[in-house]
Specification:
Blueprint (H helix, E strand, L loop, with lengths): L18 H12 L9 E11 L5 E13 L3 E17 L13 E19 L2 E12 L2 E14 L4 E14 L8 E17 L2 E14 L7 E9 L2 E8 L5 E15 L4 E12 L4 E13 L3 E12 L36 E13 L4 E14 L11 E12 L1
Antiparallel strand pairs: 1-2, 1-18, 2-3, 3-4, 4-5, 5-6, 6-7, 7-8, 8-9, 9-12, 10-11, 12-13, 13-14, 14-15, 15-16, 16-17, 17-18
């Protein structure tokens, strides 16, 4: 990721390090596997634009899906996204201002995901490999999952494991740093009646290694001489180990008389850094005729702060280090681990042009707001996300 200026020492943006590989592997575990006989090719473009010309992410996705024989399915997905704009460095707003310092950035991320599954009677086994690379972050990941149908296919049990091996470059360290993640998953999907499906998932993750965002800073006034103090910045120092637990409940109900369905879910997250979150989501799928679907969505997310989140280190006895060690005391001023709420709302349209071509488009709004009364409101982004796509089925 290349800085376009150096007005702020080493402040830079990192939305979700390794997010392509990690998200791909997680989704591969969370989705029940069913081999389809239909082949397809699809393309999707997404434009994520934060207000005030902050972060802009433009993503291109291309995916091919091929069934070979009666039971084997192969999917290959490629991704290129470009990132530019400005993001908070972690420093607080200067006295007399409500705007936190920002740092300009520019980078490109490329990724590929290969997914192979095979049906063995009532069992479906899926293997996946994912790789993403950018200027300062490389990620490799593999996953395996098993889905088994029971009770005349009214019940599906699923188990999975995913492993990612990441390499991160930090300006203040000579060598690339390593991060390893293990995710374990178990879930059940149950058909309640012909119109109702219930889903319950549990997952556990263990992350070790370099967990810092290498471009986030924390500030503290340091006395250089008697009576002379200056606000100096230091790299954040997070623990080198993290565990996380996620539970998920989902319910989908088809409403025959309305030619529609409603999909609701709740997700609970907890980690050993003190972060806990709740996510509620509801989607309505309304079909018009035989070829047009509208899908409004509403999602609410609430998060508590990490134990080591500080707006500044002033007033603490923490002595920040030029080179973070990962040992206690830990500290970070990254707004993403603060206490906040986030709302997502939007509308998606799907149009079946004919038997083989489908077009879709969506507009969503994402808004974050702090809850601790200390973090500057300007740290939290608001963004508009526009997505368009097309898929051809053979």
């Amino acid at each position: 990721m290349r800085l376009k200026n150096l007005t702020v020492s080493v402040g830079r943006f990192r939305q979700h390090p390794g997010r392509v590989v990690s998200l791909a592997l997680l989704l591969s575990l969370l989705q029940p596997r069913v081999v389809r006989s239909e082949d397809s090719v699809s393309y999707k473009f997404q434009n994520y634009q934060e207000d005030a010309d902050r972060i802009l992410i433009r993503s291109h996705y291309l995916m091919g899906d091929k069934t070979i024989g009666d039971a084997f399915r192969l999917k290959v997905e490629g991704l290129i996204d470009s990132i530019s704009g400005a993001s908070p460095t972690g420093q607080p707003a200067p006295e007399g201002s409500d705007q936190v310092p920002l740092s300009e950035l520019e980078d490109e991320r490329k990724a590929i995901i290969i997914d192979a599954s095979n049906q063995f009677g009532p069992q479906n086994v899926t293997l996946q490999y994912a790789y993403s690379t950018e200027s300062d972050y490389d990620s490799n990941g593999v996953s395996v999952s098993l889905a088994r149908d029971l009770n005349q296919k009214n019940t599906t049990l699923q188990f999975g494991y995913a492993y990612t091996d990441d390499s991160i470059r930090a300006l203040y360290l000579e060598d690339w740093q390593k991060k390893k993640t293990h995710d374990f998953f178990a879930g059940v999907t149950q058909l309640i009646d012909k119109n109702t499906v219930f889903t319950f998932n549990l997952s556990y993750g263990d992350i070790s290694g370099f967990i810092n965002d290498p471009y986030k800073l924390v500030e503290k006034n340091i006395e250089l001489l008697p009576g002379l103090s200056l606000p100096l910045t230091f790299p954040e120092n997070r623990p080198t180990h993290r565990t996380k637990f996620i539970s998920y409940f989902g319910l989908t109900r088809h409403l025959e008389n309305l030619n529609a369905s409603i999909d609701g879910s709740y997700r609970y997250f907890r980690d050993n850094h003190g972060i806990g979150s709740h996510t509620f989501q509801v989607e309505w799928f309304q079909k018009f005729g035989g070829s047009f679907i509208l899908r409004p969505i509403l999602r609410w997310y609430r998060q508590s702060a990490a134990d080591f989140y500080y707006v500044t280190l002033d007033g603490t006895d923490i002595d920040p280090q030029e080179i973070p060690s990962g040992l206690a005391p830990h500290y970070s001023a990254d707004y993403r681990i603060s206490e906040f709420d986030a709302w997502t709302y939007g509308l998606k349209a799907v149009f079946e042009v004919n038997d083989w071509l489908r077009l879709d488009g969506a507009v969503e709004r994402y808004e974050m707001s702090g809850r601790d009364g200390v973090t500057s409101a300007s740290a939290y982004p608001k963004a508009t996300v526009i997505t368009v796509g097309a898929s051809a089925h053979f």
